[in-house]
Amino acid sequence: MRYLYILFASISFMTSCNSDDLVAQESIPTTEENTYFPPNNSSEWQTKTPESLNWNTSNLNDLESFLEEKNSKSFIILHKGKIVVEYYMNNHNVSTPWYWASAGKTLTTATVGIAQDEGLLNINHKVSDYIGLGWTSAPTEKEDLITCKHLLTMTSGLDDTLGDDYSPSNLQYIADAGSRWAYHNVYVKLQDVVAQASSQSWESYFNTALKNKIGMTGMWNFFGNSNVYWSTTRSMARFGLLMSEKGVWDGNKIISEAFLNEATTTSQPINEAYGYLWWLNGKESYHLPQTQFEFTGELIPNAPTDVYCALGKNEQKIYIYPSRDLVIIRMGQAADEDSFALSTFDSDLWARINAIIN
């Protein structure tokens, strides 16, 4: 009997201690790491080690070798703004500019969002409200159906088989706006909309409203029939960080979160994997440039479902991974052969990223 009493008392004491310990543990405040923003007009950028994130560093060499073999010029992974991985290769360095190609479409998205936040335009209004009638060769009643949002979502209804030229003679009607998804260079007309709405040149407004506020370098240059942005890899990473932080830069609201939420979710019922010039993973189907086929499955099978991305010709990439606070950048030449946006490189790259971060 005495043994049972001692045993019971011991259990009660242990339980009491464990309970007290639990209470004590719960009362310890936890601190979440704040996002770091690299200072503007400075080459300073804080880093952290992959080991501090418990990543599998034994697979880093495989990632670097893969990137180099696939004609990459640079690669960056940010976690909460700090650089964890940064590679330069194939005659490229931290200060060398490179073209964004269609990944730069998302710069237009962001700038349009800022202009709307400032009350200069409304994406639901007609394009012709800002730049006048006759900007296409479609019948007036069909041109008048096209809103700025249709350009953001690639649903203008204009013929995408006529090439990248966006002069009026090359912008021909094929379907009513909103009824057909087709990857088309006509989105560039949004830059004219911003210029007219702001009474500035496109580049002047872009520089003041976005570029200078987050410390980006770079410039717009015409490349073929497109207005293409060129910058360093770190400038691309700055823009990715702004997106990851829902439009906030070091405490300053640059773009409204509401607009970015719209921009990074399915924007129309035809292509589930497309927002406002952003590509979305984790959807049940997707369309690709230069085709009207619907493909089943996720855009990038090896990437997490919450990833959204800016994809440019020859593998210019911005991947935003919200649930892990990661921004991933790749610049370079085509991994295998020229590609317009998506290629097998995306899934192959994500297989190697997963081998490190998971």
UniProtKB/TrEMBL annotation:
<dbReference type="Pfam" id="PF00144">
    <property type="entry name" value="Beta-lactamase"/>
</dbReference>
<dbReference type="InterPro" id="IPR012338">
    <property type="entry name" value="Beta-lactam/transpept-like"/>
</dbReference>
<feature type="signal peptide">
    <location>
        <begin position="1"/>
        <end position="19"/>
    </location>
</feature>
<dbReference type="InterPro" id="IPR050789">
    <property type="entry name" value="Diverse_Enzym_Activities"/>
</dbReference>
<protein>
    <submittedName>
        <fullName>Serine hydrolase</fullName>
    </submittedName>
</protein>
<keyword id="KW-0732">Signal</keyword>
<dbReference type="InterPro" id="IPR001466">
    <property type="entry name" value="Beta-lactam-related"/>
</dbReference>
<feature type="domain" description="Beta-lactamase-related">
    <location>
        <begin position="74"/>
        <end position="335"/>
    </location>
</feature>
<keyword id="KW-0378">Hydrolase</keyword>
<dbReference type="GO" id="GO:0016787">
    <property type="term" value="F:hydrolase activity"/>
</dbReference>
